[in-house]
Amino acid sequence: MKNTIAITAKNISKTFHITEDSHNTVKHRLFNIFNPPRQKMVEAIKMVSLEIRRGECIGLLGRNGCGKSTLVKLLAGVFPSDTGYLTINGSTMLMNIGVGMSHELTARENIYVSSSLLGLKIKEVDAIFDEIVDFAELREFVDTKIKFFSSGMVARLAFSIAVKAGADIMFLDEIFAVGDMKFQEKAIKVFESSWIQGKTVVLVSHSMDVIKKYCQRAGFMKNGEMKFFGDTDTAIQLYLEDNQ
Amino acid sequence: MSVIKDWTGRSNKLERIWLLAKIEFKLRYYENKLGLFWALLKPIMDICIYYIVFKIVLKSDVPSFASFLFIGLIIWNFFVESTSGTIQILSSKKYLYEYTNMNKLEIYISTLLSNSIGFFFNFFMFLVFYNYFEKESVGLAAENVWILALFVNLFILSLGVSLLLSNIYIIAKDITQIWLVFTTFLFFLSPIFFNLRTFKDALPSFDYGNPLAGIIINARRVMMEGKGPDMVLLTWDFGYAIFLLLAGLVSLSKLGSKAAEKL
């Protein structure tokens, strides 16, 4: 049973402490020892519990600022949770417009580093290297530092690495906005044809069509709370009602 | 402990650490015309300065003074590069952990491995210099092998301090300036350019209080005096290194977990 679960989250929460003054130096802390900074508490996620099975595609819905992106970062293991416990079985990758790549490295180096981070061995990266470069349409620029790339080229490269290498659990935050129209069509085609099958995916999107098409289950969030988690149609219905 | 448990559970981690170390090394040394000789240039320039000041002007009586400086400075430079040079590592390498659940400890180990390549290149140059150009050289000896244990000691010590500093950086950005002052202080409290007798007379038992002093003293014993290391000193230094590493791992677990949101 344990092997079929990708993520288990029990009562996870996240509160951000936002200070008005910058108390981030030793000097400032010492000089203001009797004058602690005024803190504003922002409860981004309130006691969320969920379980995601391997191979499942889960949708996350909610209006801007409801905590979707924070929840995704908690589930991906990027942010630590303040309460409860979280078990992640496998490597995770969070994808949105800006994906983790060093602008000081070339496309080739970034492909190796990112794929390695996703759990691939060097020989496995060698085998898919050409496919990644061709899919990203960056053959001529493979040994160019990506700081010289346009933002679209960087996004294409990141998407291609994710498509070909892929982590055990993928978090996709509005990824269908990547690249130009031609690339988007290609990306959607690949996504539909093979990529999504057998992968554990958490999809964040404002597009009801996308969520309805790919997700077996979906969650609806409001003010940091998971108001509903289950049937996709119900989650969409709740989201639409919330928008009225 | 969860940090170590998680780290050992990944299958391609060693390959990944080596890949990151190679890229780091390439970025540092192969993006300029002098390449790897940049790594050698700093100790050579330091040796020239201290040689002129202490041997020519102040008439220091230390035998094989250039080699004496050489071995002391390459150990010192490794420590400084691995500590001062990594204070902002969680900020500069954020791209590695911002979008994945990668274990941050790998970032540190790969950076220190990259520094180790530079260290061993310089160490090789020291061996060549000491054995072929130093007039008062005692030559190679079986005791030289102890340098590996001393390097492991230095590596653990540097890793521990690096972890502590870079995690404190998350909550106190001016740790960079504070550490700069501290390293200047430490530099003069380590027997890098004055002889051991002067050092021990002026600061009794301080070789036991400064882990870096112990490593430098033992490195000279095994490389230049044909003796084994001072075992008591070695044990103390390993104790310091392991203590600092544990403290560093705790800081990584407590403070480092918040790096993605704070930096």
Low-confidence stretches of chain A: none
Structural class based on helices, strands and sheet pairing of chain A:
alpha/beta
Please state the overall shape of chain A, judged from the principal axes of the Cα atoms. Answer: globular
Oligomer: heterodimer
The CATH topology name of chain A reads Rossmann fold
Number of strands of chain B: 0
Query: In percent terms, what proportion of residues of chain B is strand?
Result: under 5%
Residue windows where pLDDT falls under 50 for at least 5 positions of chain B: none
N/C terminus separation of chain A? 41 Å
Task: Name the chain pair with the biggest interface and residue counts per chain.
Answer: A-B, 35 and 28 residues
Order of helices and strands of chain A: EHEEHEEHHHEHEHEEH
Order of helices and strands of chain B: HHHHHHHHHHHHHH
**Sheet with the most strands, sense and barrel status of chain B:** none
Give structural notes.
The complex is a heterodimer of chains A (244) and B (263). With 244 residues, chain A is α/β, with parallel strands linked by helices. The model of chain A has no long low-confidence stretch (mean pLDDT 83). In chain A, helix 3 (107-117) packs across helix 4 (122-136), helix 3 (107-117) packs across helix 5 (151-164) and helix 5 (151-164) packs parallel to helix 6 (181-195). Chain A has one domain: Rossmann fold, CATH 3.40.50. In chain A, 36% of the residues lie in helices and 27% in strands. Chain A has helices at 26-31, 68-75, 107-117, 122-136, 151-164, 181-195, 208-214, 232-242; strands at residues 5-19, 39-53, 57-62, 85-88, 92-95, 169-173, 200-204, 217-222, 225-231. In chain A, 40% of the residues are buried. Chain A is built from eight helices and nine strands. With 263 residues, chain B is mostly helical. Chain B has one domain. Chain B has 14 helices and no strands. Chain B has helices spanning 2-8, 13-29, 37-57, 65-83, 89-92, 94-97, 105-132, 146-171, 175-188, 196-202, 206-209, 211-224, 231-254, 259-262. The radius of gyration of chain B is 19 Å and the shape is globular. The model of chain B has no long low-confidence stretch (mean pLDDT 87). At the A-B interface, helix 1, strand 5 and helix 3 of A face helix 2 and helix 6 of B.
